[in-house]
């Protein structure tokens, strides 16, 4: 083989560049393999070199190529497999990997690396393989998109099942075999099953009318079906649906996985990952640290790490961290996203078919993508090379380039500062993230992702330091790792008005001005204080007068002009205490105008108000002693409080009240007891200092006496005595 350039890498591989025959690699064990650079022609390789990170660079007519061994094993069109792969599984007999593709049929990848293709010429009903299942006897079931179901026996013979065999639909999306031996088929037209030894499918009824994508049997014997309308559980012939109304982020469910703890993990195309434990559903999102919102296949490795394929790459995340977030024990998970920058030919994986991912018996995880099969050995990942210290490339002040220096001297008129920085790393530069912090300007480190320029405006005069750090996107940032940082000292000159001597002079001038203002304000304040004293004195007198009027109003009943009930209550408690101290009695007279409602109804409310005022005036006109209190108790009821009056004096006062009101001779057109307004009176007496009792009890006794007067025919006086009330009727 004519070769033009060669280089031996750090692993002992010999790389050979040729004219017209592409790039080749000779391993230390003398295995020669072609390294495809393009999919069209081998091309010309002019020069080869290896950088300090282990990347091999090849100069060709199409440009420069960077080559590095990937942590992912990939099988696509260059290796003899198809690029778009829908489903993947493994034979339990010979460990062969089976892959179903779009447009290229079925592929078998043997342990020896041999690849065999099956298409319509070999007997497949369709070359779009969308579902796979291998039985323990090495029978392969291949569902197709449009061609029904194929059964490939261990001897290579192929038989077909379609809607003629009562298959739910010829678009088969998922296959599984339950522990009772049934072969379940999830299809566009519903769910069906094939009993062992049967050739005709039975249809499972009672499911929603929707596209079914995957079916899985859990450890408890329930069937879980991923569909375009949500997640369906089929158990004991009854179906239960979980959709967006139950907490799922999306009803487009693409896959499910049950872990060793019986927790169900749910993947969707639009909302990512969800977790179902018992009846508790938890939906994860970007705020929980997951880097993409599509989950098409879920697998688990021996380290209890979940691997999830999606539209933006392959994600790995510890299951324990996902559980901690779901149980509110943590806020975020540490997830890693692998894409083209990590060696994948494409970050777009495929899903919605079963199985879109498969865990092989040796622990290798297989996923289907639009560029073929991707195999992951979770234990074989090489540690990422450390990120070199950043370099400052260029500095611009007010848009003009200046030479970097330590310290960086900035003029006083430096309005903008731009610092360009980078990391001298050729391999996977997209995986590097930058942060910077300007002392005295930024409180925390500023995360600028992949941006390689720091912008500042309005820098203050004096000294400061700019710190720039770099780290890998999937690693935690540690501000104490100085080997990943570069610092730039900066000094900005002040304007003349920002110098210390100017500030000192300005402070002195301001101090003198403040002193003059203080004296002026103090003089004005003295004048204002004297005026305020005069004004306050006048307002105080006015307020006292107003308060006296308010107090009087608060004590007087507005209609009758006598005391109101509130004032009565206050004076009753006071009179009780005073009489108790003096060892004298206290009496209460309670009176009620007879049939006053009928009086109001027949004469009108205005006449009723006039009647109440006349009664109140009569009570106030010397019926009782000086010091006694007349109050309106409510409605047509009045109270007379007689401190120091015994029962005889109280009875005499009550009789005077009864006679005085009768003497008013106010006509009552609707009274059954008199032609004139009459009154019923109740009297009660208590000795606060010698017998137990309360003001309330005294009022209750007066009320009972009043009730006795009313019960005795009204228009009379009744006195409460221990155990009874004695009445005195109206004079004939």
State the main characteristics.
732 residues, alpha+beta, 6-stranded mixed beta sheet, 5-stranded mixed beta sheet, 19% helix, 36% strand
Verbal overview:
It is built from 7 helices and 50 strands. The strands form 12 sheets. It has a 6-stranded mixed β-sheet with strand order 46-47-45-48-49-50, sandwiched between helices. It has a 5-stranded mixed β-sheet with strand order 38-44-43-40-41, with no helix packed on it. It is an alpha+beta fold and 732 residues long. It is elongated, with a radius of gyration of 50 Å. The model has no long low-confidence stretch (mean pLDDT 88).
Report Rg: 50 Å
Order of strands, main sheet, comes to 46-47-45-48-49-50
The major beta sheet can be summarized as: 6 strands, mixed
Question: What is the approximate shape?
Answer: elongated
Q: Terminal Cα separation, in Å?
A: 151 Å
Number of helices: 7
- What proportion of the residues is helical, as a percent range? 10-25%
């Amino acid at each position: 083989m004519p070769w033009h350039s060669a280089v031996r890498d750090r692993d002992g591989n010999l790389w050979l560049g040729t004219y017209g025959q592409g790039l080749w690699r000779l391993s230390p064990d003398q295995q020669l393999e072609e390294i495809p650079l393009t999919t069209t022609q081998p091309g010309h390789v002019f020069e080869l070199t290896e950088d300090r990170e282990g990347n091999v660079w090849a100069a060709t007519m199409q440009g420069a190529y960077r080559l590095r061994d990937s942590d992912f094993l990939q099988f696509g069109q260059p290796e003899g497999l198809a690029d778009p792969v829908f489903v993947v599984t493994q034979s339990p007999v010979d460990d062969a990997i089976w892959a179903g593709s779009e447009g290229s049929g079925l592929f078998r990848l043997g342990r020896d690396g041999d690849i065999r293709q099956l298409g319509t010429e070999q007997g497949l009903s369709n070359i779009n393989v969308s579902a796979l299942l291998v039985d323990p006897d090495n029978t392969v079931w291949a569902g197709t998109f449009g061609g029904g179901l194929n059964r490939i026996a261990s001897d290579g013979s192929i038989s077909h099942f379609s809607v003629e065999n009562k298959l739910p639909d010829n678009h088969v999306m998922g296959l599984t075999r339950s522990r009772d031996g049934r072969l379940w088929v999830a299809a566009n037209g519903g769910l069906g099953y094939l009993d062992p030894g049967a050739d005709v499918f039975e249809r499972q009824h009672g499911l929603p009318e929707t596209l079914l994508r995957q079916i899985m049997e859990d450890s408890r014997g329930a069937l879980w079906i991923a569909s375009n309308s949500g997640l369906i559980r089929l158990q004991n012939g009854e179906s239960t649906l979980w959709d967006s109304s139950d907490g799922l982020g999306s009803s487009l469910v693409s896959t499910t996985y049950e872990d060793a703890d019986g927790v169900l993990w749910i993947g969707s195309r639009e909302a990512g990952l969800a977790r179902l434990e018992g009846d508790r559903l938890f939906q994860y999102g970007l705020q929980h640290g997951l880097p993409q919102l599509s989950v098409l296949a879920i697998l688990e490795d021996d380290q209890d790490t979940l691997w999830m394929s999606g539209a933006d790459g392959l994600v790995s995340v510890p299951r324990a961290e996902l559980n901690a977030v779901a149980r509110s024990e943590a806020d975020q998970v540490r997830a890693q996203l692998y894409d083209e920058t990590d060696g994948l030919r494409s970050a777009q994986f495929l899903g919605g078919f079963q199985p879109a991912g498969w865990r092989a018996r040796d622990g290798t995880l297989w996923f289907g993508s639009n560029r073929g099969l991707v195999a992951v050995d979770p234990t074989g990942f090489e540690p990422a090379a450390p990120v070199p210290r950043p370099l400052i490339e260029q500095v611009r002040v007010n848009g003009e380039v200046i030479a970097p220096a330590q310290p960086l001297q900035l003029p006083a008129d430096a309005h903008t500062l731009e610092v360009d920085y980078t990391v001298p790393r050729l391999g996977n530069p997209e995986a590097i993230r930058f942060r910077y912090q300007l002392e005295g300007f930024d409180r925390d480190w500023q995360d600028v992702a992949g941006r390689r320029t720091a912008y500042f405006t309005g820098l203050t005069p004096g000294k400061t330091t700019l710190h720039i750090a770099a780290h890998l996107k999937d690693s935690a940032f540690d501000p104490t790792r100085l080997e990943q940082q570069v610092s730039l000292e900066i000094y900005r000159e002040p304007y003349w008005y920002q110098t210390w001597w100017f500030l000192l002079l300005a402070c002195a001038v301001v101090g003198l001005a403040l002193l003059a203002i203080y004296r002026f304000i103090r003089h004005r304040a003295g004048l204002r204080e004297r005026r305020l004293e005069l004004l306050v004195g006048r307002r105080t007198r006015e307020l006292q007068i107003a308060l006296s009027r308010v107090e009087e109003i608060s004590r007087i009943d507005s209609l009758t002009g006598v005391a109101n009930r509130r004032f009565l209550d206050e004076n009753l408690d006071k009179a009780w205490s005073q009489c108790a101290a003096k060892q004298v009695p206290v009496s209460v007279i309670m009176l009620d105008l007879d049939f006053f409602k009928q009086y109001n109804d027949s004469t009108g409310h205005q006449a009723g108000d006039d009647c109440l005022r006349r009664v109140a005036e009569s009570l106030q006109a010397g019926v009782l002693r000086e010091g006694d209190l007349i109050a309106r108790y409510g409605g047509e009821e009045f109270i007379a409080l007689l401190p120091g009056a015994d029962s005889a004096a109280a009875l005499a006062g009550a009789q005077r009240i009864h006679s005085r009101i009768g003497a008013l001779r106010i006509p009552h057109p609707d009274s059954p007891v008199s032609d004139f307004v009459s009154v019923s009176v109740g009297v009660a007496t208590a000795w606060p200092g010698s017998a137990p009792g309360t003001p309330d009890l005294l009022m209750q006794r007066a009320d009972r006496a009043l009730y006795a007067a009313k019960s005795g025919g009204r228009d009379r006086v009744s006195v409460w005595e221990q155990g009874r009330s004695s009445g005195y009727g109206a004079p004939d």
